[in-house]
Amino acid sequence: MKGTPIEQALAEYTAAAQRPAPGAQPDTRELLRAFHPDHDAHAKVTLQVGPNKGDICHRQVAQLLQADARIDEADLAGSPVTETDVLVIGGGGAGCAAALVAQQQGARVIIATKLRLGDSNTVMAEGGIQASIEKDDTPQMHFDDTIRASRQVVDRELVAEMVSDAPDVIRWLIQQGMQFDLDDYGDLMTRRAGGTSAARVVYYRDYTGLEMMRVLREAIRTSDIEVWDYSPAVELLSSESGYCAGAVISSLKERQHKLVRAKAVILATGGIGRMHLNEFPTSNHFGATGDGLVLAYRLGARLRDLDSFQYHPSGLAYPQHLAGTLITEGVRSAGAYLLNGRGERFVDELQPRDHVAAAIIRECAEGRGISTGSGSGGVWLDTPSVELRNPGLFEARFPKLIQLGKKCGIDPRHQPMLIYPTLHYQNGGVVIDRNGQTNVPGLFCIGEASGGVHGRNRLMGNSLLDIISFGRRAGAHAAGRAHDRGHKKISIEHLSNLRRELTLAGMPLDSKGPLLFPGYANFENDSDYAGLRKNSEREGMQ
Amino acid sequence: MSGNAHEIHLTINGKDISAPPYLSVIQALWHAGYPRVKSVGCLEGVCGSCRVMVRRADSRQVTTELGCQVLVEEGMQVNFLLFPTPTHHRYQLDEIKNSWEVQARFHQFFPEAEKCRHCGGCNTTCPKGIQVEKGVELASKGKFREAGELFGECVLCNLCQTACPESIAPNHVGLFSRRVTAYFHTRPSNLIRRLERLRKGELQVVT
Ligand SMILES: Cc1cc2nc3c(=O)[nH]c(=O)nc-3n(C[C@H](O)[C@H](O)[C@H](O)COP(=O)(O)OP(=O)(O)OC[C@H]3O[C@@H](n4cnc5c(N)ncnc54)[C@H](O)[C@@H]3O)c2cc1C
Ligand code: SF4
Ligand code: SF4
Ligand code: FES
After folding, report:
1. Looking at the structure, do residues A272 and A334 belong to the same domain, yes or no?
2. Domains of chain B (ranges plus CATH)?
3. What is the pTM of this model?
4. What is the ipTM of this complex?
5. What pLDDT digit, counting tens, does each position of A258-290 carry?
């Protein structure tokens, strides 16, 4: 990358409390079209099979949606079957909220999760969660901001439900035992997020997700909900009448497949960051590989906005081994400027994320960035200016940032940090209704794996809200199915259709989904898990 | 700064590994081509999954740390700890009728907490430098708010639970302390006022 070398940029940098406003700004649409990775023509393909046949989709996501399954009928013979009312797949915030509510309503619940309970994007969230609670704010304003940021492609009903739920979501979290930052009178503190018209983000220091996740995890662990950890779902099960009737779980502990027969299944598998779309680094946890999309799609669930992803403006760009690590938007909300290689502001820092990310990519592409000398680069996040205006703020509010600074050998109070956009969030996902129900009966989907709530761009703090709002709704509705009679026959019949369609469309059957783990973790070559691979393949290998 | 700086030699889970100095021990395993999916989570030091035992070349002491946060060092020996055992403590917050009862109920839910022998094992093992032992003591005395504050950065790695000879589950004592504080004492008037207006139907959203 061309640009000012980092050593020179650092030498030229001086901290200042105030800086001149950026020059005239281009229209958001034009900026996005020219510089946002979603608009990269090479990254898009048209889906050839499945419920979204004909729709535009990101190339890497399409590859997984149109891949063969990890298992065959033959692999299931002899696998133990467990029965339950509600099976929750994914132990992040959304899954835990759903499980707690379903259990509270009397359902028997199993929660199966790929890694440890709580290893998730939820635990990493820093900035906070949105709820309109201040005097000068209303759910309507929250709605309007969300719609505006979404670029209008959004399910308005879902947004209306979510913003109306928001204050009660915070109450529910407090009743689970979650702490928030309070002022001297015990009121919730609020701060502004990019793209919002009022201070609406509530938070616990910069550990909002950690606090939320540990409270929900604790609530689950001290309850009677059955937790299966190290248990990724690799396929859903269908009933003779086309319902979702459970799932096939690959137990990494027992190294065998296990079947769960359930009256309702809630998919809460989170996002796609570890697919490293367009080779971007990511802020996401290790298990964010888009599995839920693949599982749901094969069973016939419709997806939406599969070409729209969020690149968070402030991913760490230097040092390299930490590339992609998120710096919370809270820092920009607190007033940090963005500066290019010339030390100038170039964008209104509180514009929505896609706008700010595209502006950073533009500065770097046009040679006004700061180069690290090894191909990468970025712009300054001007943290010292905030410290000058509000001494002590970082220590009190952003302990995690100070920690991160230590790992980089930087004190953000005195030195700016080099940032570049990082792959952060899957905007689209499985189509759902207000109760998290998909178009496949018996199958619910919630959280980052679902779509329609954030349109093509998500506001900070709306995701933590989304996962609890729809998590509770889906939990309650899934529990409502506990009185149904169970499914007689469970099978993976739908895979025959998939393979037929793939063959008809002339698609290769050599790749498998869901991905489960990023390639660099070498899961596919791990001899420990040979027993979890297809029989047919194992024979082929001998 | 450059990628081909000299390599570091260490052993991880008994395997000899070379890796550039800027990698964490998890990244080093991957770099050397070894598979690893267990004990990997956020890769950012907040989920507590990647628990490792570390012995450095110049020391006989074994420490417990978070593998995603430990950079490789020459002669280091690293072993991953797998699958922490979940706590056996069962309780529901709504079993506690009111805040006068918290202390009595605490001792029912966590009968071992009183038996702390102040061995300090939990403090030594905590990768976050939390004063775990003090937290247990404060909670036993009914000082839940103070106890809970000590655990603000706890990542629930369960190392203190493993270390405790009395099966106290100190991290869960900390979490209990935090949770009852919110459950009984967080009553923000701005939130309550808003809930009241919503209940009266005053704040409908027009789509
Ligand atoms: C660094 C970071 C900071 C963020 N900050 C904020 C913020 O300040 N405010 C905000 O609102 N949002 C924030 N977000 C976004 C938000 O945290 C997530 O979108 C949200 O928590 C997703 O919750 P979830 O429950 O849907 O998914 P997750 O929390 O990711 O949970 C998904 C779970 O499913 C499991 N899983 C995946 N595949 C399978 C499978 N095949 N079988 C079984 N289990 C599986 C995963 O292991 C994981 O445990 C942030 C995200 C990141 C990464
Ligand atoms: S208090 Fe215990 S569980 Fe929490 S971080 Fe420390 S050792 Fe881990
Ligand atoms: S390890 Fe257990 S017994 Fe020892 S000080 Fe900590 S809580 Fe007390
Ligand atoms: S992987 Fe989460 S703390 Fe290390």
Report:
1. no
2. 8-80 (3.10.20.30), 93-185 (1.10.1060.10)
3. 0.95
4. 0.96
5. 999 999 999 999 999 999 999 999 999 999 999
